[in-house]
Design goal:
The structure holds 2 protein chains of 2 kinds.
Chain A: E1 7-9, E2 18-22, H1 49-61, E3 66-70, H2 80-90, E4 93-98, H3 105-113, E5 118-122, H4 128-135, H5 140-152, E6 157-163, H6 171-181, E7 185-190, H7 195-199, H8 201-204, H9 208-225, E8 230-233, E9 254-257, E10 263-264, H10 285-290, H11 293-296, H12 314-317, H13 322-329, H14 345-357
Parallel strand pairs in A: 2-3, 2-9, 3-4, 4-5, 5-6, 6-7, 7-8
Antiparallel strand pairs in A: 9-10
Helix pairs in contact in A: 1-2, 2-3, 6-9
Chain B: E1 13-16, E2 21-25, E3 30-35, E4 38-42, H1 44-52, H2 59-70, H3 76-88, E5 92-95
Antiparallel strand pairs in B: 1-5, 2-3, 3-4
Classes of the chains: A alpha/beta, B alpha+beta.
Bound molecules: S-adenosylmethionine and iron/sulfur cluster (2 copies).
């Protein structure tokens, strides 16, 4: 039988293995790092249940396997259970990505019956007061009881903790709480600075020392806890000198469908002004994935300029994130400025430097909320 | 199994960790292991071994069935190696 059993990781092979449905942008919380669009409130025409089901069927045909229900807060959709059931029947591994708000015992039982496999729950702090201030709504107690209820229904859980200077102090306590409640995975997520997070970057970005502290605590916990709890921690691109391999490349393995049916190579892609993203209401999903101009735009290497085009790391990081390149340098075909080889690297370095001096508690934070900023104001290009 | 590094005994019944979803995927013509953070496409032999890890069959039965399936009497070593790897990665657990 040859080699006993080497396993192959799927590299995608041109298929959108990861499908994320952003069922709604509505949400009861006000996280000031939220990566939803700044003008989320203007997007009202959410896909109907039948339209989402069609997306599920069509995406299976082009090879999607992992399915995430996200948002906004997906619990706000009363048809979530029905969509999970459809996804499970079609053969997806179904994940729910939630703040936990509205995830009642009754709905958990029904979700289990419908075939939901796993739940990712976002948590901000181990301290009730701090947690609630960070998301602008009283939510800590509900999240804690939801975690317990999820575990008693037997779901595997990923805790998602976006790290900022407001919660590096909570790393140990969150790990202990997770170990105590039987959570299987914690992801200390780097805040990605788009949309609300970019707006609030000066107030959120931690210092290098804070990142090192968090990493050290994580390593200690890994030694202590062994296999019972898996902790993901990746040094953020801002501190690494190299960009992240964003989405494994544009249009490579990832497909997000926004609440109104816009098909996106990544959930941030709408920050790219002037790119027209095809809508599942108007186009065949196979065409969207394989042929639409938006998905072809930054696929592969042909769009690359120097230094990426000559760089032997381009198969590793694909030149980084197009959205970050666009937002910070004004041109999406530039090298991601998080790369030390980028001529815009100083933009990242100065933000990292500024994090040292911006540490006063009264730094203003703009909470994600309707009307907090004027979504209609557009910069006039010089 | 409680002690995480103990080798499998013949009377143990390995089963797929419930965090993972193991199934045949027509489009890949392969068995897959799907889990929260990823997808693993298994080669033929790995898929056939895991298919038998149903919490019912003992290691002894599994090896016997695989010998027939592969038409080869010398596969114990390979099967055990794979099971150790799979156990180390948390794909399978075993109960007595
Ligand atoms: C946008 S939320 C939507 C689902 C749900 N409302 C929730 O909070 O889980 C999806 C995930 O992204 C994380 N997240 C939000 N903003 C982020 C950012 N700027 N960078 C990285 N992760 C972020 C959240 O913690 C959450 O785990
Ligand atoms: S990150 Fe916070 S504000 Fe954004 S969708 Fe999730 S819970 Fe809502
Ligand atoms: S130059 Fe481009 S390809 Fe090379 S490491 Fe930097 S971002 Fe990656």
């Amino acid at each position: 039988m040859g080699k006993g059993g080497s396993q192959l990781k799927l590299d995608g092979d041109g298929k959108p293995l990861w499908l994320v449905l952003e069922l709604t942008y509505r949400c009861p919380l006000k996280c000031p790092w939220c990566n939803n669009p700044l003008d989320y409130d203007e997007i009202r025409n959410e896909l109907t249940t039948d339209e989402w089901k069609r997306v599920l069927r069509d995406a299976r045909k082009i090879g999607s396997l992992q399915l995430g229900f996200s948002g906004g807060e997906p619990m706000l959709r009363p048809d979530l259970e029905e969509l999970v059931e459809e996804g499970d029947k079609l053969g997806y591994y179904t994940n729910l990505i939630t703040s936990g708000m509205g995830l009642t015992k009754e709905r958990l039982i029904e979700l289990k019956r419908c075939g939901l496999k796993q739940i990712q729950l976002s948590l901000q702090h181990s301290n009730k007061k701090k947690n609630d201030v960070m998301v602008g709504v009283e939510s800590f107690d509900e999240k804690m009881s939801v975690i317990e209820e999820i575990k008693s229904q037997g779901f595997p859980v990923v805790l998602n903790v976006p790290l900022s200077r407001y919660n590096v102090d909570a790393v140990d306590d969150i790990i202990d709480m997770a170990a105590r409640t039987g959570v299987e995975y914690i992801e200390f997520a780097n805040i990605q600075y788009y949309n609300w997070a970019l707006l609030n970057r000066a107030a959120l970005l931690p210092t290098i020392e804070q990142i090192e502290y968090a990493e050290e605590r994580v390593n200690r916990a890994r030694e202590r806890l062994g296999k019972s709890l898996t902790i993901y921690f990746v040094v953020p691109d801002y501190f690494d000198g190299r960009p992240k391999a964003c989405m494994n490349g544009w249009g490579a393995i990832h497909l997000t469908i926004a609440p109104d049916g816009s098909a996106l190579p990544c959930q941030e892609a709408q920050v790219l002004d002037g790119v027209e993203f095809p809508n599942v209401r108007d186009h065949d999903l196979g065409w969207i994935w394989h042929q639409s101009p938006a998905f072809e735009m930054y696929r592969g290497n042909s769009w690359m300029k120097k230094p990426c085009v000559d760089c032997d790391e381009k198969e590793k990081d694909f030149g980084g994130c197009r959205c970050q390149a666009y937002l910070l340098t004004g041109d999406a075909t530039n090298t991601d400025p998080a790369c030390s080889k980028s001529r815009h690297f100083d933009i990242i370095q100065s933000a990292v430097e500024a994090a040292r001096i911006n540490q006063m508690p009264q730094m203003p934070l703009v909470m994600r909320s309707r009307g907090a900023i004027n979504g209609k104001m557009k910069l006039i290009k010089p | 199994m409680t002690s995480s590094n103990a080798p499998f005994a013949l009377n143990e019944r390995p089963e797929i960790n419930p965090v993972f979803l193991f199934r045949w995927e027509e489009q890949e013509q392969a068995y897959l292991l799907l889990y929260p953070e990823g997808i693993i496409k298994l080669n033929d032999s790995a898929g056939n071994i895991l298919k038998l890890c149903d919490g019912e069959r003992t290691i002894e039965t599994i090896v016997a069935e695989l010998k027939v399936l592969f038409g080869n009497d010398n596969i114990e070593g390979d099967v055990y190696n794979f099971m150790e790897v799979a156990h180390g990665k948390g794909w399978i657990t075993a109960k007595a």
